[in-house]
Amino acid sequence: MSQLFMFEKPLGMRDTLPELYEAKSQVRNAIGNEMKQWGYQFMETPALEYYETVGTASAILDQQLFKLLDSQGHTLVLRPDMTAPIARVAASKLLKEDLPLRLAYSASVFRAQQREGGRPAEFEQIGVEMIADETVSADGEVIALMVSALKQAKLENFQISVGHIGFVQELFLQILGTEERAQSLTKFLYEKNFVGYREHVKGLNLSSIDKQRLLDFLKLKGGEEVLDFAQSLLENGKGREALLQLQQLWEIVVDYGEQEKLKFDLTLVSHMSYYTGILFEVYADQVGFPIGNGGRYNLLVEKFGKTTGATGFALRVDRLLEALGELKKAEPAQCILFSDERRKEAFQLARDKRGTGVKVVLQDINGVRNIDQFTEQYGEVTFLIGKAGRGNES
């Protein structure tokens, strides 16, 4: 193993420099304030969790977990997502009454990269969880909130794709007969490998009618009209409950007035295996990956001892920033450059300016080597140099 340089970072980890940090803060504050306006309360969970609890419940692949041992020999993981930790907290401490919980978070999550390829192993998510509400209204609310939050962040061009994992599972089981065969075909959907999907279907030992049903399944993308087409692919009425939920969701989103941002994609599946019903992804111009995703996960909270429904979403802050492009830069701080004789005067002036909301940097003249280069950083510079009444001021 080669010796590390002092400035090297672990694979997939990134530094956040001041300009990017400020951009993240702008987005985080805009989205967070909107979540609060909708009645969601922010909370935090530990960065470290037990592997046997949150690690196994998270649905993140085992090889993507950062693991370590504590002093008692327990295996710990850096949290790979926020949904599982919040489900743990809700089940153990918050679900005392049968009332829906509206929780929000903004935190970093950690997923090891086998082949890094420029992808981060640590990234920030901001999102919400609505726990103890099994209605489609709850799914509609989190989707409408996500739309509203993205608009508050000044993102204009984005689209939400909505599917239902229950529909996919039922259709595939009807046609293929076994879970194993259904999972083999579903894998192509995870990878969005539709060419491979078609080739796999052509090679299956099925009737021409069933093969055509599986190929027609790929056409289930668009507006409300795709739900009728989806009905025609089902047999014996099974799977129609999923389509009724999607129809109800559409009507709810229409009532919110956000239907122009929504389209159905019934081929949508997720690598997060805890999703049990409606699920969705949000895409934006100029970004090749989803900038956020979410859905219903009714069985996850059950792993922590409570039986209840839950839904939510998470936005990737780094991908959202990529979609937004160049953000408005923060106003530069003013600077007061002072000498020893006028230090007290400088401190008082800075205190007065900060009291009016102005950002102020105080700088001892003895710490500056190049005045011209230094003053270029600031919008305004006040010189308090020499004895009072004799210094240059501007």
From TrEMBL:
Gene3D superfamilies from the UniProt entry: 3.40.50.12590, Bira Bifunctional Protein, Domain 2 (3.30.930.10)
UniProt cross-references to Pfam families, sorted A to Z: HisZ-like, tRNA-synt_His
The Aminoacyl-transfer RNA synthetases class-II family profile domain, residue ranges: 12-332
Pathway(s) annotated for this protein in UniProt: Amino-acid biosynthesis; L-histidine biosynthesis; L-histidine from 5-phospho-alpha-D-ribose 1-diphosphate: step 1/9
Cellular localisation: Cytoplasm
Record-level GO cellular component terms: cytoplasm
Gene Ontology molecular function: catalytic activity, acting on a protein; glycosyltransferase activity; histidine-tRNA ligase activity
Binding site for L-histidine: D81, M82, T83, R111, Q125, E129, Y274, Y275
Keywords: Amino-acid biosynthesis, Cytoplasm, Glycosyltransferase, Histidine biosynthesis, Transferase
Main localization, broad class: cytoplasm
Superkingdom of source: Bacteria
One annotated GO biological process: histidyl-tRNA aminoacylation
Complex formation: Heteromultimer composed of HisG and HisZ subunits.
Other known facts: This function is generally fulfilled by the C-terminal part of HisG, which is missing in some bacteria such as this one.
Family: Belongs to the class-II aminoacyl-tRNA synthetase family. HisZ subfamily.
Function, as annotated: Required for the first step of histidine biosynthesis. May allow the feedback regulation of ATP phosphoribosyltransferase activity by histidine.
Entry protein name: ATP phosphoribosyltransferase regulatory subunit
Natural source organism: Bacillus yapensis
Gene encoding the protein: hisZ
